[in-house]
């Protein structure tokens, strides 16, 4: 019977504590329970709302993407020059002559899809027998003179066919 008394006294002690919890007239327990319950309910609601928002955002993005692509494909390009379209589709590669001693150039400078930048304070190719510059763009910096010579008789290097102008005169062309 000893064990029954100990169990009975333990149960009576717990019941006594439960009675004091319910008989509390100060209200602090009720306030704490109310605040805690509001916090827990708010967190549960916020979690479900944020999960729903993330799901809806994915659905909205999936609906908007095809419409945006279709609208972009339907747009017409504005009128543009051939040079600007070529510049976008074929970017120019820049080649440079940076020297004050490039006075004799034997041969042809051919850069069909490139840009030739000449940075020199003295004339360039003025002592050459012939020089052909084939490029989309030529930039001269520091004030050099670029000589285009059509006289190939003063050199042992043969000029390719079609290099010299038909009239024998200089023809700087693009």
Q: Could you say which overall geometry the principal axes of the C-alpha atoms support?
A: rod-shaped
Spell out the helices and strands N to C: HHHEEE
In round numbers, the mean pLDDT is: 69
Question: How many helices?
Answer: 3
Give the uncertain stretches in residue-range form: 165-169
Our estimate of the beta-strand percent is: 15-25%
Largest sheet: 3 strands, parallel
User: What is the gyration radius calculated from CA atoms?
Assistant: 45 Å
| Number of E strands | 3
Fold blueprint:
Elements: H1 2-22, H2 28-74, H3 82-89, E1 93-98, E2 107-119, E3 131-141
Parallel strand pairs: 1-2, 2-3
Region (Disordered): 152-174
Transmembrane segments: 26-47
Keywords: Membrane, Transmembrane, Transmembrane helix
Question: What does the model show?
Answer:
With 174 residues, this protein is an alpha/beta fold. The chain has two domains: 69 residues; 94 residues, no CATH class. It contains three helices and three strands. It has a three-stranded parallel sheet with strand order 1-2-3, with no helix packed on it.
What's this model, at a glance?
The chain is built from three helices and three strands; from the N terminus they run αααβββ.
Structural key phrases:
single chain; rod-shaped; alpha/beta; 3 helices; three-stranded parallel sheet; 174 residues
